[in-house]
Amino acid sequence: RTNNLQGYAPICLDFEDFYTRRLYLRIQDCFGRPISSAPDAWFDVVERYSNDNNKTLKRTEKRTRCLNLGSYNYLGFAASDEYCTPRAIDSLKRFSASTCSSRVDGGTTTVHTELEECVANYVGKPAAIAFGMGYVTNSAILPVLIGKGGLIISDSLNHNSIVNGARGSGATIRVFQHNTPSHLEKVLREQIAEGQPRTHRPWKKIIVVVEGIYSMEGEICRLPEIVSVCKKYKAYVYLDEAHSIGAVGKTGRGVCELLGVDTADVDIMMGTFTKSFGSCGGYIAGSKELIQYLKYTCPAHLYATSISPAAAQQIISAIKVILGEDGSSRGAQKLARIRENSNFFRSELQKMGFEVLGDNDSPIMPIMLYNPAKIPAFSRECLKQNVAVVTVTFPATPLLLARARICISASHTREDLIKALEVISQVGDLVGIKYFPAEPKKQ
Ligand code: PMP
Q1: Phi and psi (nearest 5°) for 284?
Q2: Mutation test of ligand 1: which of 159, 214, 219, 390 has the most ligand atoms closer than 8 Å to its C-beta?
């Protein structure tokens, strides 16, 4: 099979080069390229090339319309929308692109207060606070919630923003096996001397951090079991819903709604606006006391410029559409569509013999490549046929667990998905990643 891969000569110089920086530098994955349109179901990828090994400055640009299988545009709001876009434009005209000020100075507009009320209501918590970036929401909030003398127990596959927030907090960090409540319990038991009254436990505070849907795995959190372990050991639950809010649950309210968990049992609900809502920023939702405390103490609230009013308006409008408050049924249709699309695509890939990670209903579906050397071929061969995929390996995943991480959107049509399946199937044969026998096609 490797004979078919001429043109993908070994790109390694040594171990470190191959497996880390140079691999990414040389792949020129389609998502490393500029994009010249909205990240909707189809988008324009700009290829820049020179025919002289980059030695001349003379470069040619080519725009290619590609089927987008990589953006987190789960509900299709990251495109012109009849309800959201005019409202975001009005906000842009009224407030300008930036508040040029932190929240506690001149950076709280009426749109910001409306956004926080709207998010709190939507996720089912008494209050919420919004930040300009999802990454910063995790990395800046954890150090405010906990410090030296505290214990963070983190899922082994948590996002880098959580890892950095945990490290920056100064708390002790323990990791539990990915999405395994029994191992979480084991770690908790080791940390709290068994049989002792709670008041004698050695930690000032314990926070267990999990994600709603894991971004590199497509797996849905085993939240009901995790919540019950945390209740037993009186640990706080911190839930990052970056990929689940808006994407799963009957009304898009995330994994609590999907799995029937009472939001009162999740102490800190974190999420981002950068996926399902087609905007930017992040939020923390929780009790009034918690949010009040964060507003007085969190440096990212006190010292950073607030989220752009137009971006905030986009989120409010998207939530209104999801809840049908725009007077249409588009929100419900989008939610039904993302579920249908995700389940169809996952089951078709599995029938073809691919190893696909993740759970039903999850719009993230990693196709396992394993060997990172297969990344360039997979990505480029798909792009040649106008299908843009994201491929990942170390450090985002373990070294030999490279994968193509497909993200499905409600804006993909059935024809889009069928085209994508045809291309992925051909490329899968070429690079040799159909690890299971294909299911015979029904006549
Ligand atoms: N948490 C998780 C689980 C993520 O996957 C991401 C990024 N995709 C973030 C937080 C950071 O969010 P943002 O991209 O909105 O900064």
Answers
A1: -125, 130
A2: 159
Q: What is the model's pTM?
A: 0.92
Residues 235/184, Cβ–Cβ less than 8 Å? no
Tell me whether residue 148 is in a domain: yes
Which CB contacts under 8 angstroms, 24+ apart, belong to 5-12? Answer: 5/377, 5/430, 5/431, 8/373, 8/376, 8/377, 8/380, 10/373, 11/376
242 CA to centre of ligand 1 in angstroms? 6
Please tell me whether residues 40 and 167 are part of one structural domain. no
Give which of 276, 251, 274, 273 is closest to 263, Cα–Cα.
Answer: 251
Residue closest by Cα to atom 11 of ligand 1:
135
Per the domain annotation, does 154 fall within a domain? yes
| Ligand 1 neighbour 138 (Cβ under 6 A) | yes
**Same domain as 123, residue 57:** no
368 CA → ligand 1 middle, Å = 22
Residue 278: per-residue pLDDT:
98
Same domain as 53, residue 3: yes
211 Cβ closer than 6 Å to some ligand 1 atom: yes
Ligand 1 atom having least distance to the Cα of 282? 15
Q: What is the mean pLDDT of each run of 10 residues along the chain (443 residues)?
A: 40 53 60 86 83 60 92 97 98 97 96 98 98 97 97 96 97 97 95 64 93 96 98 96 98 98 98 98 98 97 97 98 98 98 98 97 97 88 94 83 96 98 98 91 70
Give residue 438 CA to ligand 1 midpoint distance, Å. 35
Residue 425 lies in a domain: no
Task: Examine the domain organization and report whether 120 and 237 are in the same domain.
Answer: yes
Same domain, 58 and 161: no
Q: Are residues 267 and 209 in the same domain?
A: yes
- Same-domain status, 142 and 280: yes
Pairing of strands 402-407, 364-370: antiparallel
Type of residue numbered 166? A
Instruction: Give the residue numbers spanning the domain of 20.
Output: 1-68
Q: Does 331 contact ligand 1 (Cβ within 6 A)?
A: no
For the complex shown, is ipTM > 0.85?
yes
Report how far residue 298's alpha carbon sits from residue 301's, in angstroms, rounded to the nearest whole number: 5
